[in-house]
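User: My collaborator and I are trying to settle a disagreement about how two of our proteins should look. Neither of us wants to argue from intuition anymore, so we agreed to look at predicted structures for both before our next call. Could you fold the first one, then the second, and keep them clearly separated?

Assistant: That sounds like a sensible way to settle it. I'll keep them separate. The first protein:
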Amino acid sequence: MLKLVLLVILALLAEQRSQALEENTEEHLFPPIHPNCTQSLTELLLLRQEAQLNRMSAAEEATTQVLKETLQTLVQVRDSLNALRNTAQGHTPTSEAVVECVSPFTRVGERCLLLALNKMHTWASARHFCAAYGADLAHFSDINEYVAVLGYINTINELKKSVSIWIGGSDEVEEDNWVWVTGELMPRGSPFWGTKDGYRPQPSDGRSQNCAVLWQPDQYYIHDVSCTYKSAPLCQM
């Protein structure tokens, strides 16, 4: 009986020793996680994520800047191509609206003109004729406009009728101070004004001739004539 008790006690002690050895083995293979380890790993992951986001943000800013510069370059190229096209087509850039002319007026450059070649009037009567269309006698300020007017006149007067043409200039208010009906000063000298008898420059006839006409015998250069002379009105809208 005593031997049996001793055997049971020895078996229990052996079992307890075996369990203690197993626990020591597990602790050796799987040491406990330090409380700060998890926190350090989280912080590392956050730092890596933040660095990646910073790189992505920098790359996005660089891409945006490149796109802006590319857009500016394309706009400049477009404007240059438009300018070249306008030049090739004989157009000049303008901020003004395109002039629309109503019949019987014809567009000539940036103006609307009407030459009533078969209507003979005095200078004052010619202004009334034009006023009935909401217009006045024509005027021009530079050589390009003058040339355009002459081109239009020669087109209308293709049969070369001996008809001079009224324009809206006079010195009635003040002698030798030639102004347009708009109040602007008229251009003087060549190539606008012609000559009388081949050598006397116009205007040349003083107080007796105070109205401006495109003189047909002198290839439509400007001459001063009596305001009661009968000529065809050139109206400008």
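The second protein, kept apart from the first:
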Amino acid sequence: MELTQDPNSVYYLRQSDNTGMKLVTTPFNGSSYANWKRSIFIGLTAKNKMCFIDGSLLEPDRLDNAYKSWCRCNSMIIGWLITALEPPIAASILYVDTARDIWIDLEERFGQVSSAQIYALVQEISQVSQENISLSDYYTQLKKVWDEIDNLKPLPTYECANCTCNLTQKVLKLQQDQRLMVFLMKMCGDFANVRSHILMMEILPTLPQAYRMLLQEQRHKEISRIITPTDSTAFAFDKNQGYNRQQTGFQAKSRFKTLL
């Protein structure tokens, strides 16, 4: 059986696979490379083809039985990458022979992290606030930017033999606490009580945990707003009904006196 027909092989190709298939919804146009790269990784991993671009699968010898299958997969992935790029960028890699070389070229051109990129993301965070948007949108905007920063500039990790200092976890906790402060700092006054409660906790919660606490408070307030007007309306209705009954009785008495 040919390797491209073996589901357990990295060379396996489905009948639906074709060079024009889209791995990403939006072709790369030169900006937001980190997000585009992440989408490509997800698509190729799902198809078990990451080894063709990360260098872990070398090109077989031309006399090797796998060479023909490798050529088919390589051409297929090149087609996917071309489809995932805007025409001007796609034209610049059209004559590159391997998917691996295409990936190296894209990384060299667009994958270098600059201080300007980090600056732009930090500036974007400084401009986000919860004044005119929902709690969910506010949290999502901040998390999106922080995820981009983590992807561009991940925290350093420290490992050594028999180490018990847990330095990496401590650095991560410090980062989480700082982001929590930023998240709470830019919230509207409606959540002042919950914010105070969170800040008084001996061990600060993670950002997702704090978000859930605030979300519960928001839902509680929404329920209160729904219940309170209903009760007030019912009270007003009963009051009006009583007033109408008093008016009707008064009018009836007046007519009775007139008849007498």
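Some points you might bring to the call about the second protein. Residues 20 and 83 are 6 Å apart (CA to CA). The chain has nine helices and no strands.
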